[in-house]
Amino acid sequence: MKAHLKFAGLATIASLFVAANSAQARELDPSDPTDAVEIMKRTQCGEADNVPAVYHWSGRGYSRVRGEPDSLLFKLQGMNVRQCITVEDAERGKGYRMVSREVMFYVDPETNEILRTWDNPWTGETTNVMHVANDPVNSRASYPYSADGKPYALPNFRQQDDWLFMPFEAPLFYHNVLAGDYQDYVGNKYHAMEIFDFTMRASEVLDSENSTAYPAIAWVRVSDWLPWMKMRGRQGQMVFNATGAKLKSYDDLPAIIKDEIALNYPIYNAPPPVDDSRKNETTWTVFKKMIDEQRAKEKGEEKAGGGH
Hints:
Oligomer: single chain
Signal peptide: 1-25
Number of strands: 11
Protein name: DUF1838 family protein
Number of domains: 1
Helix content: 10-25%
Structural class: alpha+beta
Pfam family, one: DUF1838
Order of helices and strands: HHEEEEEEEEHEHEEHH
InterPro entries: DUF1838
Strand order of the largest sheet: 6-3-2-1-11-10-9-8-7
Number of helices: 6
Shape: globular
Keywords: Signal
Strand content: 25-35%
Distance between the termini: 105 Å
Largest sheet: 9 strands, antiparallel
C-alpha cells in the first residue's frame, strides 16, 4: 500500500510539472512587435546567442541580353555563416543584432567543378573568376520599436495552414564604387534587385519552447554584369535563381563548399565576432580593392624597374 501511495505521489508531482511547463508555453503572435522580432530572430539566428547558424543555397546564373535567348552561364553554390547577440534598449525594447560572412562559388554547368577561369562568349576573352567572398555582411540591430516609436512588423508575412511565408524585395540603387564621381549626371549607379522568400512551419517557429527555426529560402537576384566578367559596358544583365535552407550545422554543407572553403577561404567556416563594426562588403567593393592592389603593385614594380 505504501509503495502504491509513493508512486501516486510521484505521478502527481510529474503531472503538475508538465502542467506548469505547458502553461508557460504559448504561440507567438506575429502581430505583436516583441513576438515579431523573436520570429525574425528564429528565422535568422542560431539556437542561442553566440551559437552559429548556417544557410546554404544552390541554383543557376543566366545572362539576359536584348535580342538574344537567355543563356545559362554557371551554376551557384553558396553559404552564409552568422551569429546573433541579444541587445536591449530602454525605449525600443529587447532585440538582436546579427553578424555574418558569406561565399558563393560559380560552378561549371557541365563539369560541376568550381570555375577558376571563364571564357567570355561575347568578347572572346578568358577572365579570372572572382567568387563571392563578402566579409562582413552584418545587419543593424532589430528592436520591437524604432527610435520614433514605430512598432516592428514582419515583411509581407502570411500564414496558410501550417505554412508561414515571408517574402521581401530589396531594390538596390546607390553609388557604384567602380564608377566615377558624376553618377547622378551620366548614370552607372549600382542597380540590382534581390528577392528573398522564406518558408517555414508555423508549428516550429511560433512555438515559444523552440529556440530557433529552420526555414527554406528562395533567392532571386537581377543585376548588372559581374565586374570580373569584363563586359566593358555591354548591354545586358544577370539573373540568379537559387533555393536552400538553414542547416542544422556547418557539417551539413555540400562537400564542394566545405572543400573550397578549407582550401581558399578558411575564415568562412565561422562568423565574425558579435562586436564586429566593420563596413559591409559586396562583390563590387571587394573587386575594387583587388584591382587597386594589383595596380599599386604593378606601379611599384614599374618604378623599381626604372620604367624599362
